[in-house]
Amino acid sequence: MTTDGGYHALGDARSGKMAANVVGFMRTLRRAGLASDASRTALAFDALRTVGLAHKSDVQASLEAVLVNQHSDLVVFRELFDAYFRDPQLANQLLAQMLPTAQGQANPSKQRARTREALSPPKPNATASKPQSETPIELDAAMTASEVDRIKHADFNTLTASEYHLVMGLAKRIKLGLPKWRSRRYRAASTGHRVHWSRLLKDSSRGHGLSPRLPMRRRQLLAPALIVLVDVSGSMERYTRLLLAFLHAATRPSAPNGPGRRHVFAFGTHLTPLDSAFALDDTDAMLESVNALVSDFAGGTKLGESLATLKRDHAQVFSGSRAIVMVISDGLDTGVPAQLQQQLQWLGLHSKRLLWLNPLLRFDQYVPAAAGAQLLHKQCDAMLAVHNVDSLTMLASSVAQLMRSAR
Amino acid sequence: MPQSIDDLIAALKEVGYFADRRLATAVFLALQLGRPLLLEGEPGVGKTELAKALSQVLARPMIRLQCFDGMEQREALYEWNYTAQLLHMRALEGQPNSSASEIERAVYDQRFLIARPLLQALQAPQPGAVLLVDEVDRADEPFEAFLLEYLGEYQVSIPEMGTVSAAHKPITILTSNRTRELNDAVKRRCLYHWLDYPDRERELAIVRARVPQAADALTAQVAQVVGQLRSMPFSNAFQRAPGIAESVDWAKALVALDTLVVDPEVIQDTAGILFKQRDDIAAMSQAFALDVLEAAAQHAQDAQYTSNTA
What we know:
The complex is a heterodimer.
Chain A: H1 18-31, H2 38-51, H3 56-67, H4 74-84, H5 87-98, H6 113-119, H7 147-152, H8 161-173, E1 181-189, E2 194-195, H9 197-207, E3 216-222, E4 226-231, H10 237-250, E5 262-267, E6 271-273, H11 275-278, H12 283-293, H13 303-313, E7 324-328, H14 337-349, E8 353-357, H15 371-379, E9 382-384, H16 389-405
Parallel strand pairs in A: 4-5, 4-7, 7-8, 8-9
Antiparallel strand pairs in A: 1-3, 2-3, 5-6
Helix pairs in contact in A: 2-3, 4-6, 6-8, 8-10, 10-12, 13-14, 14-15
Chain B: H1 5-14, H2 21-33, E1 37-40, H3 47-58, E2 62-66, H4 73-76, E3 78-80, H5 82-93, H6 100-107, E4 113-115, H7 117-123, E5 130-134, H8 141-153, E6 155-158, E7 162-165, E8 171-176, H9 184-188, E9 191-194, H10 200-210, H11 216-231, H12 244-256, H13 264-269, H14 271-274, H15 278-283, H16 286-309
Parallel strand pairs in B: 1-8, 1-9, 2-5, 5-8
Antiparallel strand pairs in B: 3-4, 6-7
């Protein structure tokens, strides 16, 4: 692949391949889940023309300013940029990108799975000629942890690009529909039910006469707190990673429909607070952090003991008393049933709604026969399924319905 | 207007702002492409200061719009001076030739318009203004939607007067502490930069420039300790790491207390300057402060060794 001038086409600015490389890079970004449209492409070229191509770091900073628009995408952008424009492997990877038949040698050692998959050659679109199957996507289909790792410790790994797309798509599509309640406090607003007398007086005194506009105030709308308790016992392993990723993306307190506060705990043989992991922007970084924090992965489930720890050490998360508590578990508890019953009663009293999300509901004939499952079934306000996309959609509408009835 | 990234770095440095090359590139692009720049980052990393520094470098007036919960359009864009309008109407009522439509036209005159920051920025005379839309994440979503016209076209619509476009495009900096996620439409109109905590060298330069009366050893120790505190996982120690503003304040406080060398007792006594959360201040025991000091010194030694051997 040489040009007329004899220069090697790839990576040689004289042969005018920069445009193709940038477009290829943007396509790779899209595959990794970073949104970039045609207007951004034009802006990226404007930026490169402005800054020039003399310094690689300037090129990277320019593309970063144009193509990234949230902090959580920065890590993936930098990894992809390094991999895509690194010199020795550049030809190989670009070949893989441009020629679907060539096998690219991605560097598997340091990159996260999402970056690797975004850089790998695109797979032929086998489904293009066939009608799309309506079969729901099972969450456990993407489980890749080896049996040995599973026994040793938690191995939530990182998400591949396709898993990332799946999770982000779910998070966008499936809104958990947490309700907002009117607070007792009022605030200034353009429309409202009450006159804002202090502001009216202030405006009037400033204007030397009664202000012609009536400032109003109304009650604030506040979302409830969300407390999630995730079972990390061995029987739950196939669901936990993607469920954590989904919850991380779908319940951001900063999101327009997010909860007021979010507290996440993992439980197995003991309780592990995961708030520090969930505070991280990047879903992969969150999973890595959860990996480091959880030490009782694939052990037994002692929900009663874990709830006692929650009550003793983290009772402040229930302040405000309107929290929605989600217990994600299959109910196969190995603890003392009496303790579990006592703790579930306490939890029910201190939350607005106590929901049991049970992946075992995938089986049509499921009955909560185990002791722990029976107690959860009895004490919780509702038992909802969380094993596939359909059930997650149902979960969202069920939560919204349950919360409406709780007002 | 700086002609290169290096020029911009040097110009910002002259006014006491130490920008790294990545940030300078984003700012340079915002200036050259005429796009708003959205700066996100933890509180105290220098987002607002950048707008102030740019205003000095470019010799443009800085207009600041501080966003807050419940902010309305009239507080950001314009409002009518109702009192003056009423007085004017009263005055016109006495004149026999004034019809109702004429009075209506007269009261919506430019002179009764009180321009708020956005309109001020659009109407600023040559060379234009630097507009800082500070903490845009604190405003409501409807306000974000209202900003779209301004961010995209540098124009606003006033129902009684029509569209007002910028004669000289204002340089617009938006800052966000990420208390909530901004709308994609706002982000699409802006260039983006995540402003991180500075590295040790940059922090040292900032503290030296801002607190010149502090001795070199003390400045170095301030940078080391603050850097060490930031590197600690907050789940184990602190809820919020100290920003650049806190380092500068701490250095000033240490100078005011005639401190020559930082020791655990001093750190504990002045923890209220570094941290603003009660739990964080309480977590800073003398034993912990000693650990921090030792780790910071070790880290500095390692860095020195690496730079010597390189």
